[in-house]
Amino acid sequence: MSRSAAESAHTPVSVLLCDDHDVVRAGLLALLSGAPGIEVIGEAGSGEEAVALAVSLRPDVVLMDLGLGSGIDGVEATRRIARADTPGSPRVLVLTDYDTDADIARAFEAGAAGHLLKAEPPEELFAAIRAAAAGRSTLAAPVAHHVLAQMRSPRPTLSDRELHVLGRLARGLSIREIARALSTSEATIKTDLARIYDKLGVAGRTAAVSVARDQRLLP
């Protein structure tokens, strides 16, 4: 639920920070403490903690990292917070290092109000927080430009499972290691790879990873 103009004029935007790195949270806290009209009211080091604090503290905006180290990731935490959909429920603004198409799509599908990169200038972050509190969506300029380019240029669509397989392939894992990591058989992984190669129009591992990175399907 967005805040009214009258409320925004007199009440600072309350923010909950969620990042699993203490140093990052401390840096964000210091940065936002100097921003007029913005007040950090809580910090979470995990997705589960963010969900719980979003309910108890009822911030206007949750600043969410996607790559949380343990437990549920930022996308699932965003989904749980957005799913509440109660009066005064917070808006989730994703702040992350990740700018791949898959990460952007997953964040918005989960209900995120915006997606910013950690490399953005502070003023962009402040503006995005205020926009989210007011019920507007925000997309970092580099990400927005890329999304528009991709809309004009069709690209392969891989399933979440295929992206998991491809990501492990890119890290140099063997078929056996990928099968073990995903708790499935080597035959199943071979079938997945055949589908991936076909979608990407390649014949093997190296070319698949190269094309996937060019298409921004991998970090």
From TrEMBL:
CDD domains named in the record: LuxR_C_like (cd06170), REC_NarL-like (cd17535)
Coiled coil: none
SMART domains reported for this sequence: HTH_LUXR (SM00421), REC (SM00448)
GO MF: DNA binding
InterPro entries xrefs: CheY-like_superfamily, NreC/VraR/RcsB-like_REC, Sig_transdc_resp-reg_C-effctor, Sig_transdc_resp-reg_receiver, Tscrpt_reg_LuxR_C, WalR-like
Alphabetical list of Gene3D superfamilies matching this protein: 3.40.50.2300
A single GO BP: regulation of DNA-templated transcription
Keyword terms: DNA-binding, Phosphoprotein, Transcription, Transcription regulation
Positions where 4-aspartylphosphate occurs in the chain: D65
Domain HTH luxR-type: 151-216
Domain Response regulatory, residue spans: 14-133
SUPFAM superfamilies linked to this entry: C-terminal effector domain of the bipartite response regulators, CheY-like
The protein's name in its UniProt record: DNA-binding response regulator
Organism of this sequence: Streptomyces platensis
